[in-house]
Design goal:
Layout lengths: L1 H25 L7 H7 L6 H11 L5 H13 L13 H36 L4 H15 L2 H15 L15 H35 L2 H8 L4 H38 L5 H11 L2 H29 L6
Helix pairs in contact: 1-12, 5-6, 5-8, 5-10, 5-11, 5-12, 6-8, 7-8, 7-10, 8-10, 9-10, 10-12, 11-12
Subcellular location: Cell membrane
Family: Belongs to the binding-protein-dependent transport system permease family.
Protein name: ABC transporter permease
Amino acid sequence: MNRVLAARLIDLVVVLFGVSIIVFLMIRLIPGDAVAIMLGANTEITPERMAELKSRVGLDRPVIEQYLLWAGAALRGDFGTSLWTGRPVATEIMTHLWPTLELTMLSLVLGAVLAVPVGCLMAQTRGGGADVAMRIGAIAGLTIPSFWLGIVLILLLATVAPSFASLGYVPFLEDPIGNLQRMMLPAFALALPILANLSRLVRSAMLDALGQDYIRTARAKGLNERRVVYKHALRNALIPFLTSVGIMTGYLLGGAIVVEQVFAIPGLGRLILGAIAERNYPVIQATILVVTAVFVLVNFLVDFLYMIVDPRVRA
């Protein structure tokens, strides 16, 4: 087991290294000059002023040297300073990180927790009216974009309950009720595709598990059907489910950036979109690297849970 975990950690480091190189190079292909944009906002652009500012922020050095300096500092936890605000990038990210993580985790928990009983019910009622209805709902959930669903939910809520606060963000510790009230709609809009996808996966895995010999043996012994389904069959059905949850986390992180704009949540979405518009290289690099790190760490935890659920993977 330790050997497998060590291999996963090595994969994690390699992925982060590759992403850092790709992001560092690709953002420099974005049209527009960060220095020209910064100068154009306040003063007349001249070659002398551009050269002076490039030298001050280190953009006059070769790209390889820029990357090595940035990567070396990032390994020490120093992501540099914002080209616009002059504040440490780590501070900027921490300011916007929690709303995105909260939205992502709420959506993941909501989608994953509901997917298990829904998928099991679909498998138990295979071919019945309930199964058909839930499968149609799952297909609809997969085809509806989260941002469009968010807009529709806001319009419906404004009509039904105009006093209900659905936009903005309030820290949980500051106002728990207000926080959950504002996060309810974006979490549901983001969780619906996950719920639809995972419930169909659980249904398929449960149908396969319920047809195995050990399930027929358990039923022949007179075990309660609920125990057969949720203790014996579900344990094996959770193996592909856990793998998909890790992959869905990346989808949620990407979707949260868009949904945050719809519900005016000051998360990483607002930070990274503003940084792209400003050509704020240090903020873009660090934010994408942090999002990737969260994604690969979640997948590492999923691999760990995978080994707990299925001991055969430990070998």
